[in-house]
Amino acid sequence: MAADYVRAEIQRLEAYVPGRQPRTRMVKLNANENPYPPSPRVLAALAAVGADAARLYPDATAQPVREVAAQVFGVAPDEVLVGNGSDDVLTMIVRAFLDAGDRIAVTDPTYTLYQTIAAMQGAQTDVYPLDDAFQLTPAFFSAQARVTFLASPNAQTGTLFDEAGIARLCAQRDGVVVIDEAYASFAGVTCVPLLRRFANLIVLRTLSKSHSMAGLRVGFGLARPATIAALMKVKDSYNVNAVSQAAALAALQDADYTRATVAKLVATRAWFAAALSERGWQVTPSSANFVLATPPRGAAREIMAQLEQAGYLVRHFATPRLQAALRFSIGTDEQMRGLVTALDGTPATAARRSSSAGTEVC
Q1: Fold of 17-35+256-356
Q2: Span 40-253: which CATH code?
Q3: CB atoms < 10 A from the CB of 230, how many?
Q4: Quick check: 310 and 336 in contact, CB under 8 A?
Q5: Which tens digit of pLDDT belongs to each residue from 218-233?
Q6: Strands 290-294 and 282-283
Q7: CA-based nearest residue to 294, from 308, 307, 280
Q8: Comparing C-alpha atoms, which of 293, 298, 288, 341 is closest to residue 314?
Q9: Per-residue confidence at 349, pLDDT binned at 50, 70, 90?
Q10: CA 341 to chain centre
């Protein structure tokens, strides 16, 4: 059997588990997807796609997208790499920089795909727990690693790491530093300007969250030209299809729509975090499009199951640092009002219903 010849690293590998995709109609708040549609320009671009988009190979480097993305992010076109989602760029980074036996450094909690793709290459992972406020500790800055992965805002907690700390990390690290800014639009800050100072820095961005394009899979790697040229050597030949390239161009060119959508989600995030706090939940301050919170009486998994019965799908991480908490993606105002009503029907918040009376979304 072919399976008998699978590499030992793959046999030992624990596959990354994404947010569950329900088969029944539910309010899906477990994968940090944008609840609003993409820009009307994106929908028009999709409608205008002709037969040649299917018949012909796409632009292998997505050069038109690189040029527009460069303007949006404030870099040069040769400092942009376009991927089939930013996960694709992560795979290129692992291919380009890691040999078997090399080490990566990550935090705990973090996006667990970093460790998974490093293990595919035979690399080892050193994990550095965040402190009680989910911030970096001195040990992380002194780590010895070929590649360091840091999601800012953090992919599981929503916490943001300050630019000074990231600059310190780049300055001290003898290796590549990858800052994953999948949620940066919701934080309103970016470390992209640090690319001018640090040649070992790679910044990742994506259109999945802020631009409502998770299903079309477009992400970016931003780095010095020499780094981008190296990553180009290891990417798949035609890694971003023609339809996604057309949609990406339209999305990037409608900055006003994206700003308005992000602003709505940030406002809803603030209201929802306050609503949870009023009900006794311990809420982690979030700079992303989700909120991580711990119920006042425990039983996070039970609450998740009760919410699912009510038609709301949220995320639970069965890990030591997060097993007591739930992560709620931010939906529309209507969806989040419904979620709060459903939460008020669970044992963890039922006793606090009176304190939440009159809470409304602005």
Answers
A1: Aspartate Aminotransferase, domain 1 (3.90.1150)
A2: 3.40.640.10
A3: 17
A4: no
A5: 999 999 999 999 999 9
A6: antiparallel
A7: 280
A8: 293
A9: low
A10: 28
Helix 333-344, helix 255-278: angle, nearest 10: 20
- Alpha helices, DSSP H only, in the chain? 8-12, 40-47, 52-55, 63-73, 86-97, 113-120, 138-141, 163-172, 184-187, 225-234, 242-252, 255-278, 300-309, 333-344, 347-350
Task: Tell me the chain's radius of gyration from C-alpha atoms.
Answer: 21
Separation between Cα atoms, residue 145 and residue 177, nearest integer Å: 9
Q: pTM value?
A: 0.93
The span from the CA of 106 to the CA of 147, in Å, is 9
Residue 133 DSSP class: T
pLDDT in tens, 33-80: 999 999 999 999 999 999 999 999 999 999 999 999 999 999 999 999
DSSP per position, 244-272: HHHHHHHHHT-HHHHHHHHHHHHHHHHHH
Burial readout 12-33 (b: 16 or more C-beta within 10 A, e: otherwise):
eeeeeeebeeeeeeebbbbbbb
Token code pair at residue 315 = 């995320």
DSSP assigned state of 360: -
- Note the maximum CA span of the chain: 64
Domain boundaries, the chain: 17-35+256-356, 40-253
- Which is more confidently placed, 361 or 318? 318
Whether 40-253 and 17-35+256-356 are alike in CATH topology: the answer is no
